């Protein structure tokens, strides 16, 4: 098959660690699909990854045209949460099979307020939305945004939240679950340790894949509940804080940086599992051997 992997940072030339993370994810996925014998193409404003065939574009406008009109059998889109739904709609408007989640699921994940309310309706443990009657501390974060962007820990709620939401702060371990979903089947890949700098405003600086915990069964159960509540498809990452309960704090309905570690420790091919989620059936489990630790500022070594 001809597989399109459209990674936004590489395609549009985003600066700094966005590009470093994007290249690492793109390279990891492209090499996995190529090992299965598939042809890989990807849009780029210049950076290459040593795998697949780069299609040179001029920026976001060309990126959107490529998603809608480029001929490919199937495609994956990796983009900022608030942009992803529209890009997925363009992909599906063409003749390319979407290997990721639906535009509707991506739109729900991008809206952290609506996503939290959905989890509460479905009984998924979350960091609850705070109000003026609650005691601090609180976590402030954008209602729409990626990962740890503009997150802040405060003791009192500001009078005007602006474009942010406030949740109750729950102390605990910052973990994530990488999984692949297909209908009512959810296949966990790994539980991951998230290396987070609280002093820098909850900045994500890297990860350890996998992370072994004596609460793993409980953590995986909550991650599965979250994936089913949102009707996720394909690869996704569920971010949790694990304290009194494993509580979901964010959902990434797309490939995440953890795949660079997963590709080093999982015996199965990521590309094969992504394709099986769309075209056939997922296995009961995966085989993970060893541990991979990575830092965001050292991801160049994963980019080929």
List keywords for this structure.
304 residues; alpha/beta; Rossmann fold; D-amino Acid Aminotransferase, Chain A, domain 1; six-stranded antiparallel beta sheet; five-stranded parallel beta sheet; 14 strands; globular
Largest sheet: 6 strands, antiparallel
Number of helices: 9
Task: Tell me the overall shape.
Answer: globular
Q: What order do the strands of the largest sheet run in, or round the barrel if closed?
A: 13-12-9-10-11-14
- The CATH architecture of the largest domain is 2-Layer Sandwich
Q: Which ranges are low-confidence, i.e. pLDDT below 50, for 5 or more consecutive residues?
A: none
N to C succession of SSEs: EHHEEHEHEHHEEEEEEHEEHHE
Strand content: 25-35%
CATH superfamily of the largest domain: ATP-grasp fold, B domain
Q: Helicity range of the residues? A: 25-40%
Instruction: Count the E strands.
Output: 14
Number of domains: 3
Radius of gyration, CA atoms, in whole angstroms: 18 Å
Let me know the average pLDDT. Answer: 93
**Highest CATH level, the class of the largest domain:** Alpha Beta
C-alpha termini separation: 23 Å
Task: Report the structural category.
Answer: alpha/beta
The CATH topology label of the largest domain is D-amino Acid Aminotransferase, Chain A, domain 1
């Amino acid at each position: 098959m001809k597989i399109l992997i459209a990674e936004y940072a590489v395609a549009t030339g985003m600066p700094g660690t966005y590009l470093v993370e994007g290249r690492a994810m793109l390279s990891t996925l492209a090499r996995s699909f190529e090992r299965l014998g598939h042809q890989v193409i990807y849009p780029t404003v210049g950076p290459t990854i040593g795998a697949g065939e780069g299609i040179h574009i001029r920026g976001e406008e060309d990126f959107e045209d490529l998603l809608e009109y480029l001929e490919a059998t199937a495609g994956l889109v990796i983009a900022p949460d608030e942009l992803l739904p529209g890009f997925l709609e363009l992909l599906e408007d063409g003749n390319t099979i979407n290997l990721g989640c639906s535009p509707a699921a991506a739109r729900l994940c991008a809206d952290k307020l609506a996503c939290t309310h959905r989890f509460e309706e479905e009984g998924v443990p979350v960091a609850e939305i705070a109000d003026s009657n609650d005691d601090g501390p609180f976590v402030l974060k954008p209602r729409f945004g990626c990962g740890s962007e503009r997150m802040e820990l405060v003791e009192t709620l500001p009078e005007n939240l602006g474009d942010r939401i406030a949740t109750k702060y729950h102390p605990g371990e910052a973990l994530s679950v990488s999984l692949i979903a297909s209908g009512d089947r959810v296949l966990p890949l790994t539980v991951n340790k998230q290396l987070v700098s609280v002093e820098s405003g909850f900045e994500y600086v890297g990860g350890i894949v996998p992370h072994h915990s004596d609460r793993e069964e409980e953590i995986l159960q909550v991650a599965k509940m979250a994936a089913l509540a949102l009707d996720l498809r394909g690869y996704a990452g569920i971010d949790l804080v694990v304290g009194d309960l494993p509580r979901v704090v964010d959902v990434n309905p797309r490939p995440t940086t953890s795949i660079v570690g997963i590709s080093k420790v999982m015996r199965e091919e990521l590309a094969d599992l992504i394709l099986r989620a769309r075209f056939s059936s997922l296995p009961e489990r995966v085989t993970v051997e060893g541990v991979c630790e990575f830092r965001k500022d050292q991801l160049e070594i994963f980019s080929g």
